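Extended Data, panel c. Modelled sequence:
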Amino acid sequence: MTTGLEGEVVVITGASSGLGAATARHLGAQGAKLVLGARRLDRIQALADEINSGGGSAIAIATDVTDRDQVRELVDAAVEAHGHIDVLLNNAGVAPLSLLEKLNIHEWDQMIDVNIKGVLYGIAAALPHMIHQKRGQIINVSSIAALNVGPVTAIYSATKQAVRAITEGLRLEVKPHNIRTTVILPGAIATDLPGGINDQDIAAAMKGAYEIAIAPDSFARTIAFAISQPEDVDVNEIVFRPTRQA
């Protein structure tokens, strides 16, 4: 039985761990041709080797999504290797949560640079290829935090609301080019994202909140669902969370 993923050329940012790595393994097992980007080249190279040794297809490219040139090089590497790009998964994200009164402005800048500009750089790199092809799919990762703002999530929630708005604007623009767009809003998923919180009290609270977190494979299956739909089906937004999450 086919899955609709065989031979699909998929570029994934933030692929070195968590959601990105789980998605790479899941899509690779179903025949997708993967181009993996992340800052930690050793991690994504090991993942690519794992996928290739299992009969899949993956290449690893060191990529910092805050560097527009590196993101363009990542997407161009996929086109050079396979002749086209089918899917871009803008997955890289950070969440160093803190109270605004702490004035951790460098963390605000980091979230804006990675969570918003990184997505925009991905779109800028992939869109010309997809317009030329008259097909493709751009999947952006938002968060349940885009819908529910907490006392320490103001900047993070703002960046994820921006991702949602950007994706909807993109959807409206690319219809003439037969390009699909999807935004994913996951709830608590067991990744190392909370590990990026530098405030120890908030980190401890998040660790407790994440006791109900579900496996990253839940995200991978969601991505596979969106990609595997027929080309005339455009899955625009998916919100999912642990059954126990309020």
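The CA atoms of residues 98 and 199 lie 7 Å apart. This feature is highlighted in the accompanying rendering.
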